[in-house]
Amino acid sequence: MDFESLPNFRTVVPGKLYRSSTVDNVTTNDVEKLSSLGIKTIVDLRSMEELNESSAPRLLDDIFQTVGVEVKDRKPQAPEIQFTVKDAASRQDKRHFFVAFYNRQFLTGTLQRRPWYQRVFAILTMILAFLLDTILRTNRKYLKKATVAIILTDKGILQWYKDMVDYSTGSMFAALSILTDPQNQPALVCCKHGKDRTAIVAALVLGILGRTKQDVIEDYHKSEEGTKSLYQMMYNDVCVRFGAQESYLWARKETMQRFLEYIDEKYGSVEAYLLSIGFSMEDLEEMRGNMQG
C-alpha cells in the first residue's frame, strides 16, 4: 500500500505487523488507508520528549490514545512494564505507545563501555552543555547535542546497533511484548525515520519467526529506497545538527549482515538474546503463535 505522507512503510508480518517512519505527518487520506488495515496499536520507539519537539499535525492523536511506557529492570526477573495514558482519544481500543530506546539505561551503558578518559570527557561535556543551556535559556539545546554525540558513536552505525541490543534491553522487552500481544494486532512499529530503531525490532521479530538472515537483510535494505524522500531531512537532523557521519543515513546490506553476526557471536541466536532480556521459552512460543496466527 502506498502512502503519500508515511515514507518507508511496509509489511513485516502480513496482517500482524507493519513498519514505517513517524506517523506525525499522516494526512487525512492516509488516516483512512491505515484504518483500512485495521491497525489497533502503534509502538513508537521515540521518547515523549522527541514527540513534543514535533510541530507536525499529528492527526492520529484524535484517534489513538497516547500512552507513555516506563520499564523497570528487575533482574533476574523479567522487566516490569508500566503504562500511563498521556492523552485520551476518541477510540479506547486504539493506542499509540511510546517506548523510548534512548533512555538512561542506554546512555549509562554506552558510557560504561568506553575507556575512562572518554567517559570523563563526555561527562564534562554534558555538564558544560547543561550550564550553557541554563545561562542562555536554550531549552537544553546544547545538552541534547552532547547526549546525541554519545549515542551516535564515532565507531559508526554498526556499533550504534550493537549498543541498542546491549543497553536498550528493557525497552526492547516492552516493545516486543506489546507488538506480539494478539489484543494489540494488527500493529505498526515506527520511530522517526523508520530505519534504525524500527529495523532492530523488525529484525528480532523476523528472527523469532525463524526467517532466514537473507530475509532480514533484504527487509532492512528496503529502507534505502523507502527513505529517499526523507534524505535531506535526515541529513539535516543527523549530520548537520549533530555532526554524525553520512553513513548513519544508509541501510546497507552488509550492516545488517554484520549486526546479525554480532547477535550470534555474543548471544548465540536471536532466541538466546530474547531469553537474556527477560523472556521465557514459553513466552517465545506464545509470541511465535501470536505472530503466525
UniProtKB/TrEMBL annotation:
Coiled coil: none annotated. GO terms for molecular function: phosphoprotein phosphatase activity. Keywords: Membrane, Transmembrane, Transmembrane helix. It comes from the Eukaryota. The chain crosses the membrane at residues 116-136. PANTHER family: TYROSINE SPECIFIC PROTEIN PHOSPHATASES DOMAIN-CONTAINING PROTEIN (PTHR31126:SF1), TYROSINE-PROTEIN PHOSPHATASE (PTHR31126). This is Uncharacterized protein LOC118412031 isoform X2.
